[in-house]
Amino acid sequence: MRVLIAEDDAETARFVEHALGELGHVVRRAANGEDALHLGLAESFDVIVLDRLLPLVDGLEVLKRWRAAGLGTPVLLLTALGGIADRVAGLEAGADDYLVKPFAFAELAARLTALMRRPPMNDATTRLEVGTISLDLLKREVRRDGREIYLQPREFALLEQLMRHVGKVVTRTMFLESIWGFHFDPQTNIVESHLSRLRSKLNEGFASDPIETLRGVGYRMRAHD
Amino acid sequence: MTRIWASAAYRVAFTYSAAFALAILLLGVAVYYAADADFRVQQDVGIAEESAGLFREYEEGGLPDLASAVAKREAMNPADGYHYAVFDAAGHRVAGSLPIPRPDVGAQNIQLTDAKEGPEAVRALVSALPRGARLVVAIDSEAVERIDETILSLFGAAFLSVIALGIVGALLLGGYLRKRLARISGTAQAIMPGDLARRIPVSARGDEFDQLAIALNAMLDRIEQLLGNLRQVSSDVAHDLRTPLARLRNQIESVLDGPGDPQLHRPALKRALAQSDSLLALFAAILRISEVESGALKRHFARVDLSELAGDLAESYAPAVFDGGRTLTASIMPGLALLGDRELIAQAAINLLDNAQRHTPAGTAIAIEVTENSEGIALAVADNGPGVADADRALITRRFARLEASRTTPGHGLGLNLVSAIAAAHGGTLAIEDNHPGLRVTLLLPKLPA
Predict the structure, then answer these.
(1) What is the pTM of this model?
(2) What is the rounded distance in angstroms from the CA atom of residue B338 to the CA atom of residue B282?
(3) CATH class held by domain A2-116
(4) Chain A interface disruption, residue of B298, B316, B341, B416, most A CBs within 10 A
């Protein structure tokens, strides 16, 4: 996978570049807005990490021009702490995701992976299946090995999210955003407590646990249980 | 002069009096010309009537009668009256004393040269009599000129006194305005070096200057409050970040000084990572509070259904609370909404719910309530735990407040402070009361009219 990082802070850029390289991605870096604008249009990338504040041309402006030029590559916008009000502006300019600095690398990696292989938006999907687990979005029904499992709405949403991203990490904050609509970290354990309930309901009577916990990072649904 | 002209107050006052003087001048000119024209018309009417009377004498008795009538009138009239002259066709004077040669017919101004009084202008009507004779009736223009002069001098005096009074008035008014404004700029100059407590004096008159002073003083109050806040944050940050940063530093140092086996470093590095994460969380919380306090988020305010939000949170929290060995019940009046930021309100409620779990023993019953009263809508989180002593209740909303009893529980002491900032940003208040037993924290917010 090819990743473009538009980030002026050399330290942050090197850290992200190195860590993404370890994961087997090819990384190109732009240190200012002008280079980013040019590189983004000249070469083809699978995902772009764009800093909100860039020298020469502002990150938001770069994004707007990319989108105006018809560039559809998923873009993750990075912003400094305390810029909560910026989020709306970022999404309006065409960002696909948003991350507040400083961030844990695992969080960035999970979000980039989710963005890179984002399946073409298919709202017609009404049924998700992973291994022996099936989830029917219309009937709001979950079965494992044919046996029905009764879930609360939030637990259902958590499972749906995991199954949509099967094999990929979903972080705590990704859950908070998509299920609770919180774009901040309330420093609380609601994700953990709902997930532990989901897990115990899903695993009751089964020997294996299809949901992996990655400490300090998030959760991942195994493709085969 | 340039300095005075540079002052807006003087400029306005001077311009005003100059405009007034100009108006007087225009009025004077208009009156002068109107009066002059009017007098001259009257003169013409007078000499025409006089000529008509003499013409009747001529018709009755020819030149001799006219001559005697002229002589009689000249003898009767004082010097300022009419002057006459009658000439025959040959140009010889037949009667009258007006010292001019035989003129042409018509109304005209004639310049006389009097040996005694110097040149003198008269207005004359020359009528043609049969057989080439001429009758001249003239009147001295001096009277008109005197009236004209009087008008001119009256208005001239008025013009000059308006200018004089205007200058004096402008100086007084300009000085007054400058004095009032100097109080404001004086205060501003006193504040600039750092004396933020200074305020503009406000008089009892309540005029525009006082209103301006009141508005500026209110602004200064707000600025002082925001600056005080900022100062507080900076010193809190300096104070509360120093200790954990020093600890982090020591940890890293001890790893570097310790044995070279990387495997032995892992636990210390993990601790250091956790430490920096909690530092970042603390930092984020501080920034978030200042963001909320700055009021910048108000632009994004929209309708928030508090009943729905609280119900949602109660549902989301019940499992976590239950897992912690406590119970959570909700009692929510439906359909209560406010104007605000959904995520901030959610954050406030989450902080209150977290506090209720963190500072109470297992077995505590926690309740979340949304009610409406005359003052607005209230979001309350109550518990039947140990509560907080009366004296400590005012303390706990302060930044970094950690009561002795909670030194060992996790948290950075900013939770309630953030709730209080969120309440203030929404125009609401935070009340902390005794729940008999336990603690009841109520967020009172203004209701959005349906």
Answers:
(1) 0.61
(2) 29
(3) alpha beta
(4) B316
Q: How many domains does chain B have?
A: 3
Cβ-defined contact of B343 to A82 (cutoff 8 Å): no
Residues A53-71 have pLDDT tens digits of 888 888 888 999 888 888 8
**pLDDT by residue (tens digit) across B11-53?**
888 888 888 888 988 998 999 999 989 988 988 898 898 888 8
**Cβ separation of B300 and A189 shorter than 8 Å?**
no
Distance separating alpha carbons of residues B248 and B256, to the nearest angstrom? 13
Closest by alpha carbon to B333, among B291, B366, B376, B392? B376
- Calpha distance B330→B349 (Å, rounded): 13
**Across B336-438, where does the E strand assignment appear?**
337-340, 365-373, 376-383, 429-434
Which one-letter amino acid corresponds to residue B6?
Answer: A
ipTM: 0.76
Q: A127-221, what's its fold?
A: Arc Repressor Mutant, subunit A (1.10.10)
Q: From chain A, which residues contact B within 8 Å (Cβ)?
A: 81-82, 84-85, 88, 100, 102, 104, 152, 154, 180-190, 192-194, 196-197
Residues of A in contact with B354 (CB under 8 A): 187-188
Nearest CA among B311, B317, B425, B320 for reference residue B379: B311
CA distance B200 to B182: 10
**Cβ contact A193–B354 (<8 Å):** no
Closest chain A residue by Cα to residue B285:
A82
